[in-house]
Amino acid sequence: TEEDLAAKKREAASLEEERGQAAKELAALPDIEASLATVEANLDETRELISSISAQARLAEAEAARSRSELKALEQRSEEIAQLGEDSNCPTCLRRMGAQYTDLLRRYQEERRALEEGASHQDGIRKGLMEQRSRSEQRRDALEARRSKLLSQSRLKASLEERMRKAQATLASTLEMTERIQRQLDLLERDHVARALREP
Fold first, then answer.
1. Residue pLDDT, tens place only, 73-127
2. Which of 21, 22, 44, 58 is the most buried (most CB within 10 A)?
3. Among 55, 49, 36, which residue's Cα sits nearest to residue 139?
4. What is the pTM of this model?
C-alpha cells in the first residue's frame, strides 16, 4: 500500500541519516593507529629511561655510602692518633711519631675532606637523577593517560564502523523492499487503469 511505501521511504531516510552521522563522527576522529603507535613507542622509551635513571641513582647512593663508611673509619684512626700524642710510638711501625704525628693528622684531614666532597658530590648526582626521574615519571603518566584516551577512541571508532556497516546493510534491504512495493503499486495502478479503460 501507499502507507507501506511511505513508511519504508521514511525508514530509508532515517537509516541514511544514521549512516551519515556515523561517517561524520568517524571523520572527526584523529588517525588513532598512528598516534597510538607513537605513544606506545614513547612510553617504552620513557619506562626504559626511568629504569636506567633509577639504576644510576642507586649507584650514586652506594658510592656516597662507601665514602661515608671510609670517612667513619678514617675519623676513628685520626682520633686514635690524636689521643696517642706526638711523643708516643706509631701503632703500625712502633717507632716514635715525632714530626710524623702532625703530617699524619694533616694527611688524615686531607683524606677526610676528599671523602666528604666525594660523598657530597654523589649526593648531588643522586638528587639530580631523582629530579630527572620525577620529570620522566610525570611524562610517563601523561603518556599513559594519552594512551588510555586513544584506546577509548579506538573502541569508539570500532563501534562507529559497526554502526555504519549495520545502517548500510539495513538501508540496502529497505531500499530493495521500497522498490518491490513501488513495482507492486505500479502494477496495481496499470491494472486499475486498464480495467477502467475496458469498462464502458
1. 999 988 888 888 777 777 667 777 777 888 888 999 999 999 999 999 999 999 9
2. 22
3. 49
4. 0.65
Concatenated DSSP letters of 43-61: HHHHHHHHHHHHHHHHHHH
Q: Which three cell numbers stand for residue 171?
A: 538501508
Residue 107: how many CB atoms within 10 A of its CB? 12
For residue 46, give the C-alpha cell: 620513557
Beta partners for residue 89, in sequence order: 96
pLDDT at 194: 79
Q: What is the dihedral of CA 131, 137, 140, 142, to 10 degrees?
A: -90
Residues 108, 76 contacting (CB under 8 angstroms): no
> What pLDDT was estimated at residue 200?
66
